[in-house]
Amino acid sequence: GAAAAVAGPWSFDTRAQRILMTDLGxxxxxxxxxxxxxxxxxxxxDIDLDDLVRSVRRPVAHYVRHTLLATLAEEDEKxxxxxxxxxxxxxxxxxxxxFLAALTxxxxxxxxxxxxxxxxxxxxxxxxxxxxxxxxxxxxxxAERSGALGVEPTVIPLHLPHHGLAGSxxxxxxxxxxxxxxxxxxxxxxxxxxxxxxxxxxxxxxxWTARVVRRAASKADAKRLGSEVHVEExxxxxxxxxxxxxxxxxxxxxxxxxxxxxxxxxxxxFDRASWILERGSETAVNDALESDTATPAxxxxxxxxxxxxxxxxxxxxxxxxxxxxEYPALRFARALTQ
Length: 338
Known about the structure:
- 44% of the residues lie in helices and 12% in strands.
- By secondary structure, it is α/β, with parallel strands linked by helices.
- The chain has a three-stranded mixed beta sheet with strand order 1-3-2. Strands 4-5-6 form a three-stranded mixed beta sheet.
- It is globular and about 60 Å long.
C-alpha cells in the first residue's frame, strides 16, 4: 500500500541514501558532515581496547566499517614528511622501527645492523656509514630512555563490563611504554592515555604511568631539548585510588562516547588536527588535516579538508553535550584537550 505510492527506489535501511550519495559523489565534501545522524545502537559484546583506540584515532574509518558496512583497505601508517628518504625509497622511519624493536628484544646492535645490511635496501659498503651514524645513536637513545631494556614485560588482562571494554595491556613494571622512531606529535598520547585509563579503572590502587618516547619534532625542537629524543611521562590524575578511578572512568567514557558518536555519522574529530586545533597555526592545522584526510575512508567520506572548511561546518547535532565552541570541530577538540 504505502510502499507502492513511493516514486523511485526506496529502502527501509536508513543507510541506503547515505551509501548511494557517497558513491555518486553528489554532495560537496563538507556537506557530508551535515547529514542527519543515524540512531545510536548498543554495542554487541565487549569492545576490544585496541579497537577502541583505532576508533578514537580514526573515527571516520570506524563510521565506514560499522555504519556503512563498507570495507576499505586502510593504508599503513605513513612516516612523517620531515623524514629524509634514502635510496630505494626506504625511509629512516621504516628501518628505525625495525632497529628499535630489535634492541628492545635484547639483540646486539652491531650484529643486527650487519644482518640488516645483508637483507638489502641499506646503502652498500661505505655508503652505509653516514646512514648508520645518523640513525643508530638516535634509535639507541630511544631504546635506553624508554626504560624497557632489560625489563621483563607483563601482560595484564583488562575487563570493564560496565563500559563493555576488554583487552590487555603490556607494562614494564607499572609503566606503559610507547617508543617509536618517528617525530613527536601529540597524537602519540592517544593509545597510552587510553591504556592507562583502562589499567587504572581495573586497578586504581596501582599508580600506573605512561612513557612516550619519540624523535624530536624538528631540528629546532632538538636544539631546545638538547637531544634528538623527546620523552613525555604522564599518569591519570589523582592522589588517592578513588580520585584516580574517577579520572580513569572519565577518560574511558570519553573514548566510548567518541566511538558512539562516530557510529552515528562522520564526526569532525581528527587523529592529528584535534590535538592542535585550538592553539596551532593555520599552517600546522592544515598540514595535520592533510594527513588526517589522506586515508581511504576519509577520502571517500569527506575528501580533503582545510581549517576554513571546519569553521563553516554546519552543526548536525553530533557535538551535542560537548564543551562550547564556535564550530563543531572545535567542540570536539576541546572535549579532547580539556
